[in-house]
């Protein structure tokens, strides 16, 4: 049976048509152009997977280019984090580039545009320029400085570059058409004067190019064939193409801008400004807080590169904006971890279970499987003794027939161990159960092959031997917001929808083998969820983050 051929997305269709008509395969080149003013989030991961995925599909180079044109917000920390994220996702760039690499070339092109009558220095306040732009239904008004002489424009522009003019007094504008139906074509600003130190160029430049001027020309300089942007840049395409026409392209390949829908994810915000506000107001601990939708936050929470790439592949590339349910992302990580995560036992809300007919000093090491989804994962041994911890919710003194866990007079199996029967409870002065007493069937050991071991009981519980248990801090992470679209309410701030239960910290116990677990190691705590070791772990303190529960509890709540 032949393989089903995967259909092309609309961007791949465009590339295939270009290969037939305009481009050779050797001319294909892509880029991922982040602005280093924050940490990348899951939306950027989609763009990374798209651009680098096309590079892999067509055997074409992909540049990592930092759009570092705003020294006020950009830091080396963000550059480093972006590089780490791209590499972690499993991609390698061809060249590491920066818009600042092209500051001199951009400046030279701007000077030529002034000489050719395509640009001028405007000296009006920004509010006045904004008012002169008109409205979508009314044409704009020409600036009184639009008729400045070429010599005066060149002189002022050079003084702006050298920092000889006051910051913010002048801007360089393209001279296009103040009556254009596309308001972005109404003499857009190309440069602003900004007397700030740049993280790469220092104080060499006192003017900085705006995105629309720097982006397309950077694409052209690198000979990018297809410049992929999100839908908010649709109206920018006309300006992108105009700039390419007025600079000297020397018959080289002109990049083609194509737009696709950005990723909007439920129960979170995707604005870098809002994510920065969450960090700065200490709503979260850092950019890599496991509740954040940042790639570093997802990584710390326990997500895998494979799960994020699978998520990006599943949602595909669309032409219209829509909101993707975060449960799909959670499904992808469950599916991946189910295949690779070792099964272990941990108890998050412990109550002591005493097996009254088990010898006081007796101790056994029982064999149990590491991962039923992977035979090659093998087995390990776990200690068993008279006193165990089980989950408090796994016991009821009295229970109906639908409660398949432990209760008085009923039997359950302890995972990889014995069948036990609830006998009585011990309570404190407040009526809280502090011990559950039970008896065990010594012939019912799992895997022993005895008739008793083959006896069927309806429930199986996880457990940890009290004598051998390792205490751990368990961080139970949940969705940061308690509504699907926290930043679309016109009456309330997104901050009002913070989920107060997005982080709960409990003290639990895990089997002793986890004492040696390293940072970022991933496990399935049986019957509970998937967890990984947090970087806060020390020799004296074991810390686990819950990556995701075994099942989608939010889905049940919504139903």
Low-pLDDT stretches:
none
Beta-strand proportion: 15-25%
Largest sheet: 7 strands, mixed
CATH topology of the largest domain: Rossmann fold
Helix residue percentage: 25-40%
Identify the strand order in the major beta sheet: 12-27-28-29-25-26-13
How many domains comprise the coordinates?
3
As an assembly, this protein is single chain
Structural class: alpha/beta
N-end to C-end Cα span: 41 Å
Total beta strands = 29
Task: Work out the helix count.
Answer: 13
Reading off the top of the CATH hierarchy, the class of the largest domain is best stated as Alpha Beta
Overall mean pLDDT stands at 95
Radius of gyration, Cα only, in angstroms?
31 Å
Shape: elongated
Identify the CATH architecture of the largest domain: 3-Layer(aba) Sandwich
CATH H level, superfamily name of the largest domain: HUPs
Summarize the structure.
Belongs to the class-I aminoacyl-tRNA synthetase family. The chain is of the alpha/beta class and 559 residues long.
Descriptive terms for the model:
559 residues, alpha/beta, Rossmann fold, Glutamyl-tRNA Synthetase, domain 2, Ribosomal Protein L25, Chain P, 3 domains, nucleotide-binding, protein biosynthesis
Structure explained in plain terms:
InterPro entries: aa-tRNA-synth_I_CS, Gln-tRNA-synth, Gln/Glu-tRNA_Ligase, Glu/Gln-tRNA-synth, Glu/Gln-tRNA-synth_Ib_cat-dom, Glu/Gln-tRNA-synth_Ib_codon-bd, Glu_tRNA_lig_a-bdl, Rbsml_bL25/Gln-tRNA_synth_N. By secondary structure, this protein is of the alpha/beta class. It folds into three domains: 14-260, HUPs (Rossmann fold), CATH 3.40.50; 265-342 and 473-549, Glutamyl-tRNA Synthetase, domain 2 (Orthogonal Bundle), CATH 1.10.1160.10; 349-462, Ribosomal Protein L25, Chain P (Beta Barrel), CATH 2.40.240. Helices cover 26% and strands 24% of the residues. A seven-stranded mixed beta sheet has the order 12-27-28-29-25-26-13, with helices on one face. A seven-stranded mixed beta sheet has the order 23-20-21-22-14-17-24, with no helix packed on it. Strand 2 (62-66), helix 3 and strand 3 (96-98) form a beta-alpha-beta unit. Helix 7 (211-222) crosses helix 8 (237-246) and helix 11 crosses helix 12. The radius of gyration is 31 Å and the shape is elongated. 37% of the residues are buried. The mean pLDDT is 95.
């Amino acid at each position: 049976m032949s393989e089903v051929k995967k259909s092309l997305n609309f961007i791949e269709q465009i590339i295939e048509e270009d290969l037939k008509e305009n481009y050779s395969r050797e001319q294909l080149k892509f880029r991922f152009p982040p602005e280093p003013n924050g940490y990348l989030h899951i939306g950027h991961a989609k763009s990374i997977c798209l651009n680098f995925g096309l590079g892999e599909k067509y055997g074409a180079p992909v540049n990592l280019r930092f759009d570092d044109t705003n020294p006020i917000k950009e830091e080396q920390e963000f550059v480093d984090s972006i590089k780490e994220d791209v590499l972690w996702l499993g991609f390698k760039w061809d060249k590491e580039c920066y818009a600042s690499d092209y500051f001199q070339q951009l400046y030279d092109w701007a000077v030529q545009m002034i000489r050719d009558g395509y640009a001028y220095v405007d000296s009006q306040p920004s509010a006045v320029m904004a008012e002169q732009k008109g409205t979508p239904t009314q044409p704009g008004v020409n600036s009184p400085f639009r008729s400045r002489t070429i010599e005066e424009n060149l002189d002022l522009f050079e003084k702006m570059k050298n920092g000889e003019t006051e910051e913010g007094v002048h801007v360089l504008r393209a001279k296009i058409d103040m009556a254009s139906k596309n308001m972005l074509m109404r003499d857009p600003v190309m440069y602003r004067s900004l007397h700030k130190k740049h993280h790469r160029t220092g104080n060499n430049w006192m003017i900085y190019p705006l995105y629309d001027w720097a982006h397309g020309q950077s694409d052209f300089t690198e000979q990018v064939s297809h410049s992929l942007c999100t839908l908010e840049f649709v109206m920018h395409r006309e300006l992108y193409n105009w700039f390419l026409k007025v600079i000297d392209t020397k018959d080289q390949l002109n990049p083609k801008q194509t737009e696709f829908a950005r990723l909007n994810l439920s129960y979170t915000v995707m604005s870098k400004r809002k994510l920065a506000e969450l960090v700065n107001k200490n709503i979260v601990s850092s950019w890599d807080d496991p509740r954040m939708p940042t790639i570093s936050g997802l990584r710390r929470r326990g997500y895998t590169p494979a799960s994020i790439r699978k998520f990006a592949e599943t949602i595909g590339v669309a032409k219209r904006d829509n909101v993707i349910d975060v449960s799909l992302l959670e499904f992808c990580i469950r599916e991946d971890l189910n295949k690779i995560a070792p099964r272990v036992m941990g108890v998050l809300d412990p109550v002591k279970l005493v097996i009254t007919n088990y010898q006081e000093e007796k101790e056994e090491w029982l064999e149990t499987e590491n991962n039923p989804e992977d035979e090659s994962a093998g087995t390990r041994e776990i200690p068993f003794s008279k006193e165990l911890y089980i989950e408090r919710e796994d016991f009821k003194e009295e229970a109906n027939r639908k409660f398949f866990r432990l209760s008085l007079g009923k039997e359950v199996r302890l995972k990889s161990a014995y069948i036990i029967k609830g006998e009585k409870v011990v309570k404190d002065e407040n009526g809280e159960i502090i011990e559950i007493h039970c008896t065990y069937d010594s012939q019912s050991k799992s895997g022993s092959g005895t008739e008793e071991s083959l006896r069927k009981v309806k429930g199986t519980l996880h457990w940890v031997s009290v004598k051998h248990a390792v205490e751990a801090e368990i961080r139970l992470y949940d969705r940061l917001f308690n509504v699907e679209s926290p930043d679309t309410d016109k009456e309330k701030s997104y901050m009002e929808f913070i989920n107060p239960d997005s982080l709960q910290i409990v003290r639990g116990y895990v089997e002793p083998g986890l004492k040696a677990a390293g940072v970022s190691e991933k496990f399935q705590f049986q019957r509970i969820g998937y967890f990984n070791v947090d970087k806060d772990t020390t020799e004296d303190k074991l810390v686990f983050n819950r990556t995701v529960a075994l099942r989608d509890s939010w889905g049940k709540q919504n139903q």
